[in-house]
């Protein structure tokens, strides 16, 4: 099975995006949305996966006005 994540991307002044996708797809969405930050999109998602709670959830709140939440759904 493929691991998928329920994700939500919130940004100041823009509509919220969400979905159920693989890590690779989430990274491509972050890149396409041109989310500002000090790290590349793949680093943000990788660190979130490492820091995830025991239930597989993680959140990253950027001081640059956006928040990404992930919840692992299946393996």
UniProtKB/TrEMBL annotation:
Domain of life: Bacteria
Protein name per UniProt: Uncharacterized protein
The organism of origin for this protein: Rhizobium leguminosarum
